[in-house]
Queue: 2 jobs
Job 1
Amino acid sequence: LVELEIRDRAALATLFDTYAIDCVIHFAGLKAVGESVAIPLSYYDNNLRSTMVLCDVMKEHDVKRLIFSSSATVYSSANTMPLTEEAALGCTNPYGWTKFMCEQMIQDIARAEKDWSVVLLRYFNPVGAHESGQIGEDPTGIPNNLVPYITQTAIGKRKELSVYGNDYDTEDGTGVRDYIHVQDLAQGHVAAIQYCQEHEGVEVFNLGSGRGTSVLDMVKTFERVNGVPVPYVIAPRRAGDIAVCYADPDKAKRLLHWQSEKTVDNMCADAWRWQRKNPRGYESK
Ligand code: UFG
């Protein structure tokens, strides 16, 4: 493990000089939607400049296989569900635009030089933890996302979960998302590496389950699977949220030979195992 700032071109070039790298998975970036609205320049600087420097150093070292962490947030909210990779694009916040722009930049590079082999992975809602309970999600400050908020409420760190809106046009009125277990997500990257080794050009894939789960479904599943209460209140809608978002995962199934396997029950059990073993997150160690 080498820790470095990837916008530091010299440091990154030294890393590529030191190791024989033949494929890069680019995960680095800021990822909080609300924060990106408050400090957009930080998001553009971090997410765009890191990608530019990385691609430039890769090119210089003749490394042309790249897997990029993109997001379902690049899809326009005007689409109908499920979202295929052909759905219209368009973002509503700076975080989304940085993913959109990175995708564009990487595609332009691969169009200019035909020997690049690139996979853009559009993640839906990654949740859960490694089943060992050793690797999990420990957000800084108050969690923005649903599942870490649920686990922190269940452990007693937060008083109650706010359910953001119960008047959406969904079965129970709460927002519906496509949650994907982080271990399935990791397997998706393994499949993408194999794909990169066998193909040139750029390909885009959704990494989702194809199933929609509402906020209240998630809360009830968590309580049932783990036998712990999750106190909640109904709160107003959160700005920028949409009612429903889920993937059509068929392309990844056909071309990457990948599909998600873990259930929402697994996600809830694994997230809770990690939180229980690490009540104060990584600070517990
Ligand atoms: N929600 C609550 N209470 C909370 C947190 C979330 O009710 O305390 C609800 C939201 O309103 C939404 C659902 O739970 O209906 C999921 O919300 P998350 O914040 O967990 O996830 P989002 O779907 O808003 O966003 C996620 C990622 C983004 C990414 C986006 C892509 O966090 O980085 O998916 O669609 F851009």
Job 2
Amino acid sequence: MNTEIVKTFGDVANAPFVKEMRETTANMYRLGWDERNGGNISMMLNESELSKYLDVNKVIRTIPIGFNAKELIGKYFIVTGTGKYFKNVDKDPETNLGIFRIGGENGETAELLWGYADGGKFTSELPAHLMSHIARLSVDAEHRVVLHSHPTYTIAMNAICPIDEIDFTRRLWKSNTEAIVVFPDGVGILPCMVCGTNLIGEATAEKMKKFRLVMWTNHGIYGTGKNLDEAFGLVETVEKTAQLYMLTAGFDNVNVIPDEVLKGLAELWNLSPLEGVLD
Ligand code: 2HA
Ligand code: ZN
């Protein structure tokens, strides 16, 4: 009698964490935030959850990361592919997404376990993602998701406002009462820089030590959180608020939210608003 135990795995493409990536990318595409190959998402996965769906000892190939992500060695990520369209993730997750573990002596390689089926690889913004994961994990043990997008009104508002985190945050908070409640820690901003590099990754991660939201001037925004809903909800609230701001910009604004109401909301929700905005 053959006593060999064969472990069976679930269908990766329909695992809850893959389904969530499929749904989120489809939503973002339909919102008009992620044209062509715009936007990228990375989410940390638990080994126990992942090993229900695949053999974590079976590495398909290793891909150099381009820097040392030492702090993340042994951690698992699901990440959108470079050059891939959010529009197409849902219908072909195995080509447009990849699941890998950070490996190598110094965390310099991605050990691919599933996906990038056409021979592709992770997003060109992987340095910004991984460096941001490291930065967020250093201040929040529950952190899991980094999401990057090109939401239209957010980029438009950023184009007509000074590159000043306090000023930009104030304009957002004073336009929509939800804003201070959802992001009391405000929005960090980087000037326009060359994207897809370690340099912008390092600058983003530096901001991420303080902010969950980081604006890339003339490009887009990063949102982070303990799950996809949280990271998406942050970007969604900034975008809705920026839309209100842009629809009213240039008019004689009769009603802007008074500081007293913002302070009242902070008190009601027990928030610690970004210093310097309401003082
Ligand atoms: O992946 O959004 O920042 C395409 C981009 C680059
Ligand atoms: Zn981008």
